## 1
Amino acid sequence: MNEKVETIKKELENSLKKVNDMKSLNDVRVEYLGKKGKVTELSTHMKDLDNNQKKEFGKILNNLRKSVENSLESLKVKIEEEELNKRLEAESIDVTLPGNKLHVGSIHPLNKIIKEVEDLFISMGYDVAEGPEIETDLYNFELLNLPAGHPARDAQDSFYINDELLLRSQTSPVQIRTMLANKEKTPIRIICPGKVYRKDNDDATHSHEFHQIEGLVVDKDISMNHLKGTLEAMAHHLFGEDVQIRFRPSYFPFTEPSFEVDLTCFKCEGKGCSMCKGTGWIEVLGAGMVHPQVLKNCGYDPEKYTGFAFGVGVERIAMLKYEISDIRDFYTNNTKFLEQFNKFESGEENESK
Ligand code: DAH
């Protein structure tokens, strides 16, 4: 019996030498381990043996089966590897074929402006604050020195939800929220970008929904100089180092004094062109020193603390910077329009600054 086993092992060795692909490997598997295979065949001799021999022979058979399986398995791994290598060699890539163009999105121009402004102010130690878009009349108007019936409320015809709640018409209520949350803790240095809503009829320059970035600083000894320096830094960051700013007296109920802030026209550099309507200046934002009453409303003693605030329209900045003539372009999700801003993503623009 042992001889038979040895013969089978030898025969197997020879058969395996001839194997060169999966098919011939399988044939060998069937020849030895199949139902009528050589190894299976051997086990039919069991019945002729006595118990002791059966035990002995069982072991031998088992070992034989295992060794055949092992040999087949290692050969299988080898063949698979060879076949894979052959396939890889055959599948060389033609790098000259035209590729499929991937449709890559771009950061929305409004988000781009917001991010640029955030980056600057974060670098100057400001926090980025948030407030709800559904706001109370108290925070949106009352505590900002705009009591019911105040004429300046008309300029911000608002979407009221009920007597007390409205869609915020400005980001200024975040000033109130921040001061109330800090309870005379200073310094306060925040900006707050966000959406605001007004009952405007949509046209090329008006939208019932738009974005503002609010700024607020409160501390001891904050002066107009700080305000001017800060706004200058923002103007330079957004429009380049050559831009100059000027303050024009204006009126906002929550600041005193209040200003409208102009930049020298960055298209004609102040000479006068169609963009600045021949004046050389472009109005970009509102600002001022926080009104003592507003400080008081929020628990800050105006004898001890002063502050400045500003509010800038993001659409306005984006329209000026990218020379966009219709505000509705920001909201219609026309990919042809949005794709233009990919080029601003590549860093070309920042490097040239
Ligand atoms: N909230 C004002 C508006 O929507 C903009 C503004 C002006 C904000 C002056 C300010 C400020 O913080 O000081 O028209």
Note: The chain has 13 helices and nine strands.
## 2
Amino acid sequence: MKILGIDTSCDETAAAVVENGREVLSNIIASQITDHQEYGGVVPELASRKHIEAINYIIHRSLNDVNLTFDDIDAIAVTNRPGLIGALLVGVAAAKGLAYSHDLPLLGINHIEGHIYANYMVHDSVTFPHICLTVSGGHTLLVKVYEGWKYTVLGTTQDDAAGEVYDKVAKYLGLGFPGGRIIDELAQEGDPTAIDFPRPMLHSGNYQFSFSGIKTSVRYYIEKTKSNGTDVYNELIIQNIAASFQAAVVDVLVAKTIQAAKTEGVSSITLTGGVAANSQLRSSLTSAANEIDSRVYYPPIGLCTDNGAMIAGIAFEKHKQGLRDSLSLNAAANGSLVEV
Ligand code: KG4
Ligand code: ZN
């Protein structure tokens, strides 16, 4: 069964064709990053307009590049929640038009379920139930994932998402947008113990996260250092800030994820979303998991960040479970996981 998956939830216009949930035939992504860069973050109205410009071409490419036509497609899946409402609506409108004109089933998909599914598409040995840490520019979620794609949300962020705080710290340091990868690279040359930034909620006894305190501490540190007449952009200082900030974020993410795996007695941990590309998070989580005989999985970059393949992937499971949406499918800015 071949499903066309469409995602326009944030600043990537994405379409992909996936066979039977796991075989990625095409995965086309048009990033709008350069359009948003001068504003230092994603501008929702601009995102919608750019999706409108790109969507038909990206869908066409997802079929044409692999010599497919709509005659080969069995269903259309589209992210309809959560995300930027105007951006989501572009994908939903396109998907509805295609489903109607080609007489294909339509499935509205939760974007987070797509991120959670991504690891399963490439790793055969992921066991159920498992713990999934989804960390991106918009989300920080610790979820227990059961067979049949059912979920219990263990924890979420009370304020900023993990990726968001990377992007904000990068902005304070004048490093450009999005900042995650830049900080990750700088951190590799710095000392993670140089500055003792706080680890909010580390001992809260639950799975909730809070990152805005770290962000504020970094900002104060930069301001204080500057007011002492020190040049923050002096190489070592900026690298030490990056490394110490990253150590604080990673410490909290790893501690809570490992605690969840231990308490729930699972042997697989999956890491997904844009921040799953972070080298320190990958290595720290992997070594901490080794100590409790758990295994950590993360997807290749093209399935980590926003993409249509993960949407087509989870849609295959939902289609098997009988999900069909009508042409009155709507988009929603919020959308929590349906829990068991
Ligand atoms: O999943 P994604 O592409 O989009 C959202 O759904 O938000 O995630 C983008 C986020 C950005 O905040 C970006 O700074 C962050 O992922 N990111 C990273 C790294 N690469 C991307 N954060 C930390 N380290 C990285 N290597
Ligand atoms: Zn995402």
Note: The longest strand covers residues 23-31.
